[in-house]
Every structure is written in structure tokens, then in C-alpha cells.
Amino acid sequence: MMDWKTILIVVLVVLLTFAAGAAGFFYLQTKETVLPSDRIKDNEASSLHDELMVDIRLYFMDAEYKQLVIERRPIEPAVLIPDRVKIALQALIEGPTTHRLISTIPDGTRLESVFWNEADARVYVSFSEQLLTHHPGHTLSEWGTIYAIVNTVCAQSDAIREVQILINGETIQDTNTVWDWSLPFEKDDTFVQYAMRPGE
Amino acid sequence: MNFTLPMKQLFGLFILSSLLLLGWVASLESRELGGLQDTQIIRIQTRLLEGGEYVSVSELLPYFADRWQYDAFSGAMLFTRADGAQIGLKIDEERVVMGSRIFHSGTPPNRHEGQIYIPFYLVDTYLFPQVRFTESGNQPEATPLPTTPDNDLSPSGNLFFRYPTTPPSPTPAPTPTQPMYSFTSKETPTQIQTSIFKTVPSAVIILDPGNDPSHPGQSSITGARECDITLAICSRLAENLREYKNYEVLLTRTPSDQEFVSNEHRISFANQNRGSVFISIQCGALQTSEFSRGGVFFMNPKYDKSAQTNQTIITRTAQLIPWHDAYKNYVPQSLQLARAINQELYTWSRSAGIVHMDSNPRPGRFAILRGLTMPGVIIELGNISNPETARYLSSDRIQNDIASELEIEITNFLYDRAGISTRGGE
How far B377 CA lies from chain A's nearest CA (Å)? Predict the structure, then answer.
């Protein structure tokens, strides 16, 4: 049978451990970390290669689901518009490298193809069906997905005016989406926060 | 050193404090309030706050016994008077709900030093309409008031009451329209309603519960499904609108509908039934479960190039609707309705702090609104993948609250559109 002194010491030790744990937890919570992507790490190794890279703008959702945030990411330059769009959308699907940004592309989504119609200044981007079947369905979530794709694509060239999103090469109709995905979208900067770079 | 006795005492004190703390927390979560069942004499003490005269809610509780409710989430209070009439008040909300009527009081209830205070004007007019208060020292006196034969809300034994005010309040001075202490003749609630609401605008309200059992949408970890929550809230809202307003209310899907209900069908249903207003209620999930956000959305032609041309839409029921007529004419009204609902839900949700709302509605191009021949809005209630939100939106009380808030705004919108003022207190 332990005496009172021992019990008190045990209680104090438990309380101190809990307090230290809580303090550490809150410290880690408030400390924002920025994880550089492998691509960025590679860039640090080669300044020559760094000079050849160009920044692209990708759009992700902020943590409070209020607006889209631009993340700039260096990529190898591509001449043709479809190639640039493909690289940008692949990076978009991979997700953000900046802390507290949220990817709006559902898991499992694949980019199928990209087609550029110069006459209409329109880019057709075709995704796999997971873009909709794995989508959580909130109206804001749909908005984030649509304009993350559209704004990212339009940011790759001033010549691009609108973006038609397709699923397996077909227009999106007769689904239970809240937004109307059946027609092309134009870039919309109404709810976009500017000036954000990894590490800033 | 011998610590035996002090240590024992200290440890005992620690255990006792913990038990007291637990008891206090438990008592906070399950607070029971009661009072006298039959009120014979009303004694209330007023207090001047920010230039107005207020009464603490704790002063009123003894006169309402079990016939009052308080929702800590929204700050809403519901009092049931002796005559059965229900009075809804809300902290920082100027509107007063009396049964199915809405009045603008101009002075909302508020919080002060941890207490809830209601303006004396509201207490006098709505909570004790048959009582004539008179300032008269500390001795209350009761004198029967004459009853009018056509006053069906008069409780038996109307009394003339005097109540003590300590210290006597010098300001503000009584005005002819809002007497502070006494009325020589009081309008009964029935008379007030009659004078303000001369006619009820006829309307067909289309409510659209999002998703359906074949596409139930997202589910929470507790098993609550999006399609069930939206249907429950729409059903409560429909019940309120039918019962209190005599509106015709139609749902785009009912509990018996188990098959897929397409957006096109919902729009055709609304157009065929010549709806006056279309309200779509959604409750989807975000990509994160850590945060919950809702919003109100409306159609904006800026996002729809078809609306800028003469293109037409052929619906499943072979309706040919020019886009211009379809919804472009209703954009200002949709925006007006969206703003009103957004403001109401924004204020309401802030008190609970569970679902965050934008301060303004958002425009867009929506499959569920495209082609409507009436004003229409989408209401996204929150993120169902957030466990707290799912529990919150699944509760009967919150669903009733949401239905009540929407009922008020839809009614106000329809009255405004019909050119009838709902501002009874002005």
C-alpha cells in the first residue's frame, strides 16, 4: 500500500507529463512547416538547371474553404499549350506543397487527355470518372474543383479563354452535381488570394 | 520532515475540488429552470442599459414555469404565454416571432454581464399583452381589467398590475408610439396582426431536398446521410409554411421516392407547378473533415453564356423555355432572397460557431437552378464529414431552428414581393 506522499508524487508527475505534452502539442500545432517538393530539392542542387525552370501557377483551396490560393511551382518549360496544361494539371492532381492548402481534385483522379482548340480559344481536359464519383459533393467543394482546374489551365497561356471539363472524353450531363459542368468555364478570380510561394 | 497530515489534507482538498468542478460542469450542461405555474401578480424590475430599459430573463422565468425554452446554440428563446401563444425572441435579433407572425421591434434582446436582457417594450407588448404595468413604489396592486368579448386571447382574470422599479427610471421618456410604463388602451395580438397583415400573398413554394436514396450523397461517421438530413429539414419547413402561412408547398422528392431524381426533373417539376420560389437545400462534404462551411448560392448570367443568347432549353417534359425567360428575369429577386437567407443563417450560425458561413451569397452556374422560371437559391448547410456538424444538423432542435429561420426569410421575401410590409413594430 503506497503512502500519501508517493501518491502525491505520482499525481504530480502525471500532471507535469500531461502539461508538457499539451505544451508540446500546441507548439507543434502553431508551428507551420513548409515541405519542399522533390522537384524543389533537385533545383537547389543545380543552379544551371534552376535557370531553365519556369514558374507555373497552381490553384488550391485554403484551409477555411473560403478562397483559392495560388501556389507557384517551378517546372521544365514546354512550348506547346497542351503540354504545358498537362504538366500543370499533373502537378495539380499531385496536390499542394504548401502547408495548410487543400487539393480539390478527388483521390484517384487521372488526367486522360488534353486538347487545344485554337479557333475557339478553348482547352478540353478529360479526366477519369473518379473526378465525380470520388467527389464529396459540397457546393463549395465543387466550386473549388472546377475553378482550381479552370484557373490553373488558363494560367498556362493568355491565349486560353475557356476550359471544357470532360469525363472519359464526354461532356458531363445528367449527373447529380450541383454546379453545371456541361458547358465551358471561363477563368474566375473572384475568390482567389494572390501572392503565395512555397516557403514564404 | 513529516508531510503526512498536510499531504493528506491537500490531497483530500484536491479530490474535493475536482468533484466540485465536475459537478459544476455537469450542472452547466443540464440546467433546469422553473417557476410558478399560475401567475397572479407580475413583479419585474427593469434596468437601464445603453439608454434603453431592459428586464433580465431571470426575472421572467418564474412566470413561464416549463413554458419556455432557450437554445444556447442560436441564442433563441421561445416563451409560451398562458393563452397558448408562442413568442420567439433571439439575442441581437430585432425580429419577434409571435405564432406565425413576424414583427420588427427595433430593439433586440442582448447579453450584459452574463445575463440575457429583453427590452421592457417587448416584455410588455408580447410576453404580457394583457397586463398594464404601472410604476408605483414597491407595493404591487392588482386591479381587474375589463375584458372585451371578441378578444379570444384574453386569459381569465385580467389584472391591472403595478410593479416596483428601483430606482425609478428617469429616461428614456415615454413616446406616444412606444409607451414605457402604461397603456390606456392596448391592442390585442389579434388586432396587431389584423392591422399589419391584411392579406396573405398566395404562393407556391418549391422545396428541393438535395440528393436521393439512390444517390444518398455523403454520410457522416455516425451514419447520418445527406439525403435524409435535407429531406427532414425540407419537410419541417414545408410543414411550417403550410400550417402557419397557408402556402402551397411542394417537394421535388418525397420520402417514398427511392429512385434517382435528376436535376432536370427537379427543374421541370418546379416550372410545371408554377412555383413562386425555389429553395434547394444541400448538405455535402468537403475534402477535409476538420472544418465546416456552409453558404448560399444563386444563379448569375455572368457564368452562363447561354443566358446571353437566344438559346432555348428542352426539358424532359418537352417544355421549351427561352433562357432569357428561364431565370435571367429573376436574377435580382434570386439575389435578394439569397442575401436575406445568407444574412439570417450567417447571424444564426455565428452563435453556435460550428458551421462557418460566408457573409455574402456566391454566384455561379448551377445545374439545379438553370432553367427555372422563378427566383431560386441553393443553401448549403455545412460539411457533413465534420462529425460535430453531422451531429448538429441531425438534431431535431437544430433542424427546427433552420426551418424556422428559412420560413421567416421566405415569408418576408414573398411579402416584400407582394408589396406588403412585415415590419410590424415600426
Answer: 11
B286 in A contact zone (CB under 8 Å): yes
Contact B362 A178 (CB under 8 A): no
Residue B91 · residue B109 · CB < 8 Å: yes
pTM for this model (two decimals): 0.60
For the segment A112-146, what is each residue's pLDDT rounded down to a tens digit? 999 999 999 999 999 999 999 999 889 999 999 99
Q: For residue B152, give every residue at least 6 positions away whose Cβ sits within 8 Å of its Cβ, in sequence order, or none.
A: B190
The neighbouring-strand residues paired with A185 are: A163
User: A66 and B362 in contact by Cβ < 8 A?
Assistant: no
Residue type at A22?
Answer: A
Query: For B93-146, how does the pLDDT look when each residue is reduced to its tens digit (9 = 90+)?
Result: 888 888 777 777 778 888 877 778 898 888 888 888 777 776 654 444 443 333
Residue B205 C-alpha from the chain's centroid: 18
Mutate to test the interface with B, among A120, A176, A182, A185 (most CBs of B within 10 A): A176
Instruction: Say if the Cβ atoms of B285 and A136 lie within 8 Å.
Output: yes
Q: Are B352 and B395 in contact (CB under 8 A)?
A: no
Whether A133 contacts chain B with CB within 8 A: no
Rounded to two decimals, the ipTM of the complex is 0.72
